[in-house]
Write a structure and sequence with these properties.
Strand content of chain A: 35-45%
Distance between the termini of chain A: 36 Å
Strand content of chain B: 35-45%
Strand order of the largest sheet of chain B: 2-8-7-4-5
Largest sheet of chain A: 6 strands, mixed
Oligomer: heterodimer
Distance between the termini of chain B: 104 Å
Number of helices of chain A: 5
Order of helices and strands of chain B: HHEEEEEEEEEEEEEEEEHEHEHEHE
Shape of chain A: elongated
Structural class of chain B: alpha+beta
Number of helices of chain B: 6
Largest interface: A-B, 55 and 52 residues
Mean pLDDT of chain A: 91
Chain lengths: 436, 326
């Protein structure tokens, strides 16, 4: 066990690049920063460095629920594994006694050797008048306390996600991500799906080709680019598909982003200066105000800081190659966030405002990087194939992005430290955006 | 040897040994699947083995005590082997997740006029579903649904191919070109829709231009091409023509920034045309970034697919102009 754990630790550390300096222009000297890798290392719990959680298979208590129970167990396990808020004790060590309810739970069996669990999740599924219900429990087996006794009813995958989030909330005090959603481009249209890629459904169609969807931080709105009129323009809809508004310009208008207070920002070539400039407007596209001014330059990929709502990260080629910049949402104080040559694209601010992920590379090879905004330290998240367009999970602990490592563009996920990489689409996918 | 030690050894070496050391007389069963995730239509091999069992069932059906079966599940399925001996039961199960088979692409293509006189044009229209990549002979890679004005000089069959995760589908539309048989009734042209005749002439007079890698500056050849276009666009009958410049990039850069680069290329053409007297208000600009790129090597502008061909501005007639006889 120890050997395996330290091997894991080594391979995680191997992902980190040497710390690179960044420009911190016009910023007062910062106090010494906590080392980035240490900081990240505390975010993702690996076996051995956090509490141990055992998840006993849920038991079917009604005839005909075997398949649903199998699905429930699989989804719950995958959710808690990807949540990475505790070590998950391997099933092979579990006692053979089934635990459908608290009366069957023998604390010492789970807290002692070899399981050494701190917490045990268990329960049963039953058919209540045509609906699947799960009685769900979480116990602290060391102190022999009941932490959760609840019931979830509805679609099987959904109720497993709900219980997973309930466990995460109890163990960490923070909202989980198992009930969150991701939108992405599949082919030429937008699909919305569960955070694990299941339950993919169509979003409102808007012409022959749509690109670059972005959820608002609260997940209530989705902005994207439609080529319906022949010219790329921004469309804003509610998450249910109702039209809110958009732009109607005769030059490319792209890369929408919505602030936590419901303002829109985008990049457009309407200035007459031959350039792509960043604009801020009302959510419906009205009242556009220009923020950047670089004749014949490219300013693109604006992204609001979802935490403060007062800063915008963007890409600019004003100094040569495209790099990540930051400005106040008034347009003041435009400054490079990362300046290291090469080509950067598609910055994405974590919901807690601490990190900016972006695409970085050159010569046809691009990878996902994460920058710590305060210290400017970087880490490289991907290394296989080509990777672009990162987006953050609502809890700022995971990312999603597009990768062509399998031979075609698919949407992938990883933990903030680069571990746990997995594909969540199988029929193609690009430009993911993740929301509550 | 003390019992604790032997248990520990059992745990380390094999999980099944644990049960043996504990000394339970229960039957045992183990079930394995060849894969835990597959696509609809694919096979999974389910194998099981049992010990001390009188009867073994797989999903309720009696089976050999040790064996294997191949299934082609349509939905996510739990396979459960149950071994019984008297009133003692052992179970083992595995879930096999089944992804629905990707839908086959569909494609439809038609021409507004299936027969035209030489010099006339017609509009090809196509729609697809479940396609990642759509190509049309003579036109190359195209958006998954759209239309294009064509003016073939001889009868042409346009073969359209849609490729998606679910396979490949083909469709075609034939445009027959006949010699002008003398005076014909010309369709009335309204101010609203595009005029196919003018669109075809526009396509001949305002030609695509090509760019260097990562550049949006005009080359001397591009300036020549644009000067010839501007000459025609500033002639009296053509001064009401509104058109669109569509900027494109080769596939090597990133998606979002390439929209900016393609737009810069469109803006370069717009700016130069405006300096030659073509009013900026007549010129729409759009960038497709690398969405239409199809090259895999540098090649040359005249050679498609190639990166050199990908880095270009297309000029698309939108509206206006005075109808005329060919």
């Amino acid at each position: 066990m120890k050997i395996k754990a330290s091997f894991l630790l080594c391979s995680v550390l191997a992902i980190f690049l040497p710390v690179l300096s960044v420009v911190a222009e016009r910023q007062p000297a910062q106090p010494p920063q906590e080392d980035f890798r240490k900081q990240i290392g505390t975010i993702i719990v690996t076996p051995g460095n956090g509490p141990n959680l055992a998840v006993a298979d849920f038991i079917s208590r009604s005839a005909g629920l075997e398949a649903a129970t199998g699905t429930f167990n699989q989804v719950l396990w995958a959710d808690l594994e990807f949540a990475a808020v505790s070590g998950l004790v391997g099933r092979s060590l579990y006692p053979k006694t089934l635990v459908p309810d608290p009366a069957s739970l023998k604390f010492d069996e789970w807290s002692g050797d070899p399981i050494k669990a701190d917490y045990v999740a268990f329960g049963n599924l039953q058919n209540t008048g045509g609906t699947v219900s799960a009685d769900t429990y979480l116990y602290d087996v060391k102190t022999k306390q009941q932490l959760i006794a609840s019931r979830h009813s509805g679609e099987t995958r959904r109720i497993a996600h709900e219980f997973a989030d309930e466990v995460v909330k109890l163990l960490t005090g923070r909202d989980g991500i198992a009930t969150s959603k991701i939108a992405c481009v599949v082919g030429d249209s937008i699909k919305v799906m569960d955070y694990d890629g299941f339950n993919q459904r169509n979003f409102a169609g808007d012409g022959p080709m749509v690109r670059f969807p972005q959820f608002s931080p609260d997940g209530r709105y989705l902005a994207y680019v439609s080529f319906k009129t022949g010219v790329a323009n921004v469309v804003v809809r509610s998450a249910e598909g109702g039209l809110i508004g958009g732009t109607n310009f005769t030059s490319t208008t792209t890369s929408p982003t919505i602030s936590s207070s419901g303002q829109l920002a985008f990049s457009s070539a309407i200035s007459g200066d031959g350039s792509m400039e960043i604009y801020v407007s009302n959510l419906d596209g009205s009242g556009a105000r220009r923020l950047t001014r670089t004749p014949r330059g490219i300013n693109i990929s604006p992204r609001w800081n979802p935490q403060t709502g007062r800063e915008i990260a963007f890409i600019s080629d004003r100094a040569g190659t495209p790099q990540v910049y930051v400005m106040d949402s008034s347009g003041a104080n435009q400054r490079p966030l990362i300046a290291r040559g090469g080509q950067a694209d598609s910055p994405s601010w974590s919901p807690d405002g601490r990190y900016v992920a972006f695409t970085y590379g050159g010569a046809g090879s691009f990878q996902i990087f994460v920058a710590d905004v305060a210290s400017g330290q970087l880490l490289q998240l991907t290394s296989q194939g080509r990777n672009e367009s990162p987006t953050w999970s609502p809890d700022s602990r995971h990312l999603s992005f597009q990768s062509n490592r399998s031979g075609r563009w698919e949407v992938w996920q990883a933990h903030i430290d680069g571990s746990g990489q997995r594909a969540i689409t199988r029929g193609g996918g690009r430009s993911p955006t993740w929301a509550k | 040897m003390d019992t604790k030690y032997s248990r520990l050894a059992a745990i380390i070496f094999t999980a099944s040994m644990l049960v043996a050391v504990v000394g339970c007389a229960k039957p045992k069963v183990q079930l394995q699947v060849s894969r835990e995730r597959l696509q609809q239509g694919e096979e999974v091999r389910v194998s099981w083995s049992s010990k001390d069992a009188k009867k073994v069932t797989l999903n309720g059906n009696p089976v050999d005590k040790t064996g294997a079966q191949v299934f082609t599940p349509d939905n996510t399925t739990t396979y459960m082997a149950e071994a019984t001996r008297g009133d003692k039961i052992a179970r083992d199960s595995k879930v096999v997740a089944v992804d629905p088979r990707p839908a086959r692409p569909t494609i439809r293509i038609s021409a507004d006029q299936e027969a035209i006189t030489r010099g006339q044009s017609t509009t090809l229209r196509w729609t697809t579903n479940n396609a990642d990549r759509v190509t049309i002979s003579e036109l190359g890679t195209v958006p998954s649904s759209g239309s294009r004005v064509v003016s073939p000089s001889q009868s042409t069959t346009y073969n359209a191919t849609a490729v998606g995760p679910g396979g490949t589908e083909n469709a075609s539309a034939r445009v027959t070109v006949t010699e002008d048989a003398g005076p014909v009734d010309r369709p009335r042209t309204t101010n609203t829709g595009p005029n196919p005749t003018i669109a075809a002439i526009f396509n001949q007079m305002v030609r695509p231009i090509y760019f260097e890698l990562d550049k949006s500056d005009l080359t001397p050849e591009s300036r020549d091409t644009l000067r010839r276009g501007a000459q025609w666009l500033t002639q009296a009958p053509n001064r009401s023509i509104v058109f669109r410049v569509e900027g494109n990039c080769d596939p090597r850069g990133t998606e979002e920034y390439n929209i900016g680069l393609g737009e810069r290329r469109a803006q370069s053409a717009k700016e130069y045309l405006a300096s030659l007297g073509v009013e900026a208000s007549r010129i729409q600009t759009v960038s497709y970034g690398k969405e239409r790129a199809s090259g895999t090597t540098e090649g040359a502008p005249a050679q498609a697919p190639s990166w050199a061909h990908d880095r270009r501005d297309d000029f698309i007639y939108v509206s206006g102009g005075t109808p005329r006889n060919p």
